[in-house]
Design goal:
Shape: elongated
Number of helices: 12
Radius of gyration: 20 Å
Oligomer: single chain
Strand content: 5-15%
Largest sheet: 6 strands, parallel
Structural class: alpha/beta
Order of helices and strands: EHEEHEHEHEEHEHEHHHHHH
Distance between the termini: 59 Å
Number of strands: 9
Length: about 300
């Protein structure tokens, strides 16, 4: 199959590799990220050319304005579409904007799925991503071979565009609040005189156990904040959650608090590019205590 793939960043590059490995022919356009040296792909001049050359077009971009520019801007994907094309946006963007983008592309006769993912760089490299999809069943079934090449847990959330993005926002709310809860618990226990590593080990055997406590709790204690998922990207996702909540008339008080803590971390030098587990540093400042100081 001829597949266009736009967005060869930290997530997109390994995803494109998997598609090549599955025997697909890849067309791309270069933007912020260079073409990986070991990726067999044809580079064309514009997103519109990617669409003209491809049967299915996949986008994996940082934010809503990036997707809008690639799809609807000058020489964008829209200009290369025809009735037999299918666009799959796997970025994490606004559900409201997603519905608007889909409507415009459908006017050109093309199909559209929003299919954001969870699993980070590790999941992208391992082809074990969780994929949350919004769009018609027939288009979902057409895209299933691609999704199965990239992920393991694949769910059609709803037949309306935006459903996948809404599910991804829900995911990001849960992850953010789990990170905040783990950070609070470890800072509290550490300042009370306990060894945070032993507290984490004990909690891993009880009802408080979670993937966040396992992975990010260890990061907090070891002070290893090299990015797995960058703070600025999670902050962006929580902004999307709050924007969508305002449109729906929904209150997300704890999400707002987590977003403010992330904003505080992002304001520090290098904070925006650090792992989102570094949220613990905002709580350390508020508490006047660092986990790294407990053994001194």
């Amino acid at each position: 199959m001829k597949i266009g793939f736009i967005g060869l960043g930290v997530m997109g590059a390994p995803m494109a590799h998997h598609l090549v490995g599955a025997g697909h022919e890849i067309f791309t356009v270069l933007n912020r990220s260079p073409l990986p040296k070991d990726l067999r792909a044809s580079v064309v001049a514009s997103p519109g050319d990617v669409a003209r050359m491809s049967e299915i077009i996949v986008t994996m971009l940082p934010d809503t304005p990036d997707v809008e520019r690639v799809l609807l801007g000058g020489n964008g994907v829209l200009e290369g579409l025809s009735a037999d094309k299918l666009v799959i946006d796997m970025s994490s963007i606004s559900p409201i904007a997603t519905a608007e983008f889909a409507a415009k592309l459908r006017q050109a006769g093309a199909g559209y799925l929003d299919a954001p993912v969870s699993g980070g760089e590790v999941g992208a490299k391992a082809a074990s991503l969780t994929i949350m999809v919004g769009g018609p069943t027939a288009e979902f079934e057409r895209a299933l071979p691609i999704f199965r090449t990239l992920g393991k847990n694949i769910t059609l959330i709803g037949e309306h565009n935006g459903a996948g993005q809404t599910c991804k926002i829900a995911n990001q709310i849960i992850v953010a609040l789990n990170i905040e809860a783990v950070a609070e618990a470890l800072v509290f226990a550490s300042k009370a005189g306990c060894d945070a590593a032993k507290v984490r080990a004990a909690l891993m055997g009880g009802f408080a156990s979670s993937r966040v406590l396992e992975v990010h709790g260890e990061r907090m204690i070891a002070r290893t904040f090299a990015p797995g998922f960058r703070m600025r990207l999670h902050q962006k996702d929580l902004n999307l959650a709050l924007e969508s909540a305002r449109a729906l008339g929904v209150s997300l008080p704890n999400t707002a608090m987590a977003q403010q803590l992330m904003s505080a971390c992002s304001a520090r030098p290098g904070g925006a590019e650090a792992d989102h587990s570094s949220l613990v540093q905002a709580l350390e400042i508020l508490s006047g205590h660092e986990l790294s100081k407990e053994k001194e």
